[in-house]
């Protein structure tokens, strides 16, 4: 079955001392999944399940409020890299969703709903746990790439651009069902926690594979920066969200990110040191972010003209 093809990895060996064999086996599955798909799921990932369920319930409560209530935490004018707070996709966008976006707890860019009252605290807790799991994941991915386990951590220690979105997708209509159009995430590593409705799909060999909702799992997605650093060893997965008729969908997406001034280019370990040509020219991360934002503010008329990471590809 196509949908069972997304591997699920148990991360518990990484939370207990001594299970070297368990760690090795998990890393082997992750390494393979990252080069085949850029997508896998994890269980026993360290994020408390009661917290995840509570966050999902509160998010459903928030998004069921009238616009007037939700707009109380609309983004104020600020120099944030992306607007924190409540956002709804513009009418002209094919993506029919709304979301609350946050930076790390304590960030001056954050604007939180005050209703339901517990929502802010629970969002902040989710963010902290997601960050811890992402820090574990960056050690695992560094290792899987044959780099020193601290490589990615040392490459970017600045956590101030990390993001989390609580998302709500409207039910599909008779004529359209796009939740999020096909894309690759631009950051380092993404996590998705989806509700029981499903709709997330990942592309492999030109086919769309549904990622079925499995309770208590997190979906892990390798993103563009890892693909560039690894000179395509690991894939940044193309994915999308398809909406369901008659059912609203909720999810959380966490984006473990780079600080905007970071320089991104294929690492020497995957190019000069092994005599392979780089597949990308280098760029400043925030310049790429600005181009991707332009896709949304000034959408090109043809899908193929949307900027993605191939903008920096070196043709061979
Ligand atoms: O809601 C989801 O399942 C995924 C959302 C997503 O891919 C994104 O926001 O980049
Ligand atoms: Fe995404």
From TrEMBL:
InterPro entries from the xrefs? DIOX_N (IPR026992), IPNS-like_FE2OG_OXY (IPR044861), IPNS-like_sf (IPR027443), Iron_ascorbate_oxido_reductase (IPR050231), Oxoglu/Fe-dep_dioxygenase_dom (IPR005123)
Specify where the region named Disordered lies, as residue ranges: 75-94
Q: Sorted alphabetically, which keywords does the UniProt record give?
A: Iron, Metal-binding, Oxidoreductase
- The coiled-coil regions, if any, are none
Q: Which GO terms describe its molecular function?
A: metal ion binding; oxidoreductase activity, acting on paired donors, with incorporation or reduction of molecular oxygen
Name all Fe2OG dioxygenase domain ranges: 160-258
Q: Which PROSITE patterns match?
A: FE2OG_OXY (PS51471)
Top-level taxon of origin: Eukaryota
Similarity annotation: Belongs to the iron/ascorbate-dependent oxidoreductase family.
Protein name per its UniProtKB record: Fe2OG dioxygenase domain-containing protein
């Amino acid at each position: 079955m196509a949908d069972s093809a997304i591997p699920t990895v148990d991360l518990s060996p990484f939370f207990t001392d001594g299970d070297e064999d368990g760690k090795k086996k998990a890393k082997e599955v992750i390494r393979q999944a990252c080069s085949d798909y850029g997508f896998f799921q994890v269980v026993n990932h360290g994020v408390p399940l009661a917290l995840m369920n509570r966050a999902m319930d509160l998010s459903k409560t928030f998004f069921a409020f009238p616009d007037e209530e939700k707009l109380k935490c609309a983004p104020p004018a600020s120099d944030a890299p992306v607007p924190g707070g409540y956002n709804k996709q513009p009418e002209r966008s094919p993506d029919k969703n709304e979301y609350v976006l946050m930076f790390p707890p304590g960030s001056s860019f954050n604007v939180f709903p005050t209703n339901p009252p517990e929502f802010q605290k629970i969002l902040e807790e989710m963010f902290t746990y997601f960050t811890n799991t992402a820090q574990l994941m960056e050690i695992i991915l560094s290792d899987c790439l044959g780099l020193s386990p601290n490589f990615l951590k040392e490459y970017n220690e600045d956590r101030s651009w990390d993001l989390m979105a609580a998302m709500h997708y409207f039910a599909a209509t008779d004529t359209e069902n796009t939740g999020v159009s096909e894309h690759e995430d631009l950051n380092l590593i993404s996590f998705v926690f989806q509700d029981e409705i499903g709709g997330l799909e990942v592309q492999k060999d030109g086919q769309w594979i549904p990622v079925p909702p499995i309770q208590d799992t997190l979906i892990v997605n390798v993103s563009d920066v890892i693909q560039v650093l690894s000179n395509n060893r690991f894939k940044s997965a193309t994915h999308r969200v398809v909406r369901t008729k008659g059912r609203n969908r909720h999810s959380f997406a966490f984006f473990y990110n780079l600080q905007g001034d970071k320089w991104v280019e294929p690492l020497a370990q995957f190019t000069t040191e092994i005599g392979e040509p780089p597949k990308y020219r280098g760029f400043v991360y925030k310049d790429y972010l600005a181009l991707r934002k332009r896709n949304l503010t000034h959408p090109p008329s043809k899908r193929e003209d949307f900027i993605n990471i191939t903008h920096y590809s070196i043709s061979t």
